[in-house]
Amino acid sequence: MAVGDKQTRNPRDPGTVWLRPDPDRARRAAPLTRERIVEAAVALLDDHGADGLTMRNLAQRLTVTPTALYWHVRTRDDVLDLAVDEIFGEVRLPAADGDWRDDVRTLARRWRATMLRHPWAPGLVGRPMLGPNVLTRTEFLQAALVRGGFTGAHLAVVTRLVANYVIGAALTEATWRQASGPQAGAARRHITADPTAYPTLVASGHLDDARWNDDDLFARGIDTILATPPT
Question: I need a labelling partner for 63 at 20 to 30 A (CA). Which of 124, 167, 176, 192 fits?
């Protein structure tokens, strides 16, 4: 097996760490463990983003050789999948004994907050979402919607609406926070400088942080999605 970051994929390989059995050899490679690798990967991603995660950098953080990592993970993609599922474990689940809408709101709010703490995460959520932490929270979301009367295709649609809304909001906010800084005010001034060209954007306060709070807009968005009656 090569020790670089690029490897030739076996056509019979299911392509995701979640669909492969955990090899016994990983248990014989102590003291390095998959848990330690994932913990270090999340820290590296928090510090440097997805582009900063290589198997070589990860090995350096763990003070091991890159070869040692391959006793526990096959590829960089495995590490990314494991890291995404790891941070989903931070999303604390509500008690699920109250109003179904409140449960969805709470889950969505905590999910967004977690991804904003790990701004690399929203851009990776399109990867295979089959880890136990992701599936447990998806199960909670759908169970809450079922309690609200959603079934069949409508359940699938609203599940996707909530998930895509949370991921999209977190991705947009994280990117904006990293890139804007003093540009935020400049962006608003760029719009208001020509009110005849953008009359609706000027009137609605588009990109006006003083007028619209991200937390409030996010909460209203979830309420709008959940206002759709089950059919």
Answer: 124
Please state at what angle helix 132-147 crosses helix 152-179, rounded to 10 degrees.
Answer: 130
Tell me how far apart the alpha carbons of residues 171 and 111 are, in angstroms, rounded to a whole number.
12
User: Is residue 91 a contact partner of residue 41, using CB atoms and an 8 Å limit?
Assistant: no
User: What is the full DSSP assignment across 80-144?
Assistant: HHHHHHHHHTTSPPP-S-S-HHHHHHHHHHHHHHHHHHSTTSGGGTTS---SHHHHHHHHHHHHH
Structural domains of the chain sorted by starting position, each given as residue range(s) with its CATH number in brackets: 17-87 (1.10.10.60), 92-226 (1.10.357.10)
pLDDT for 199-231, tens place per residue? 998 888 887 777 778 899 999 999 999 987 776
CA–CA separation, 181 and 168 (whole Å): 20
Contacts of 176 (CB under 8 A, 6+ apart): 184
Query: What pTM was computed for the model?
Result: 0.81
Question: What CA–CA distance (Å, rounded) separates 174 from 123?
Answer: 10
- Number of CB atoms found within 10 A of residue 188's CB: 19
Is residue 187 a contact partner of residue 177, using CB atoms and an 8 Å limit?
Answer: no
Structure tokens at 50: 């997805």
Three-state SS string across 163-223, please? HHHHHHHHHHHHHHHHHCCCHHHHHHHHHHCCCCCCHHHHHHCCCCCCCCCHHHHHHHHHH
Asked if the model's pLDDT at residue 1 lies above 50, the reply is no
- The CA distance from 190 to 188, in Å, is 5
Q: Give dist(CA 75, CA 122) in Å, integer.
A: 20
Distance in angstroms (rounded) separating the CA atoms of residues 38 and 84: 9
